[in-house]
Each structure stands twice: as C-alpha cells, then as structure tokens.
Specification:
Blueprint (H helix, E strand, L loop, with lengths): L1 H8 L3 H9 L4 H12 L1 H15 L3 H8 L12 H10 L8 H28 L5
Helix pairs in contact: 1-4, 4-7, 6-7
Length: 127
C-alpha cells in the first residue's frame, strides 16, 4: 500500500486541474491520467508479488519438513529442490539434479520477470 500511495502522490495536482478545466470526468481522469502515471508502482508490485510467490519454502518446510506432507502433496519447486539437493530420510542426495532444478527455477522467474517488464514498459508514461 505504501508503494501505491507513493506512486499516487507523485502525480502532480496540476495535471488533474488541467483535465478538470478541459472538462474531463472522474472516470476519464482515472483511466487516462491516474492509471498510466501510476503504472511504475503497479509494475514494481506485480514483479515483487510474482517473485514472492516462489518463496513459499519457509512455511512449508516449517510445517511439514522436507518430506512435504502426505506423499509430497505440499511440495513446491523450492522444497523439491531442497529435498533433491540435500536429501531426505528416504532418498539420497542428488546435488546435480537439485542444482539443475535451481537453475530452471531461476530461469523461469527471470524470464517471466523480463516479459512483465517488457509489457509494463510499453504502457509507462513519463511526466
């Protein structure tokens, strides 16, 4: 919320005053002024939320350990990587396979972030 608030407060009031003098309605100002100028804040929050969604390792590991609940039903890529790389009770360690999974996870996150940046940069306006 603080990032959104900072982004909205960065929009100069003169732009809204000029739009009111030109006869713009509230919905028009929202769609044509506020949303395009707040797009950098939306971009930052979208990317941080996307990256944060892959960081669910701590909660699952604290609740279930590296076994991942009944028959690995709570596994995510991070816990699967941990179990592969550092081993669990049933399985042996497979550092090479765990490293490969970590690289694939990194490539997934970085490529999706690059795509998000590309689409958001197209819709970004300068003041």
């Amino acid at each position: 919320m603080l990032i959104f608030l900072a982004g909205l407060q960065a929009i100069p009031a003169e732009i809204y005053d000029a739009a009111k003098m030109d006869g713009a309605s509230g919905l028009t100002m929202l769609l044509r002024i506020t949303l395009p100028l707040a797009m950098p804040s939306v971009m930052v929050m979208t990317i941080l939320t996307f990256i944060g969604s892959f960081e669910t390792f701590e909660l699952i590991f604290a609740m279930q350990g590296s076994q991942g609940g009944p028959y690995y039903s709570t596994d995510v890529l991070a816990t699967y990587f941990y179990r592969l790389a550092f081993g669990s009770v049933e399985e042996g360690e497979s550092i090479g396979l765990g490293s490969a999974l970590a690289v694939v996870l990194f490539l997934m996150i970085s490529s999706a972030t690059a795509v998000l940046l590309f689409f958001f940069k197209r819709k970004e306006y300068e003041l």
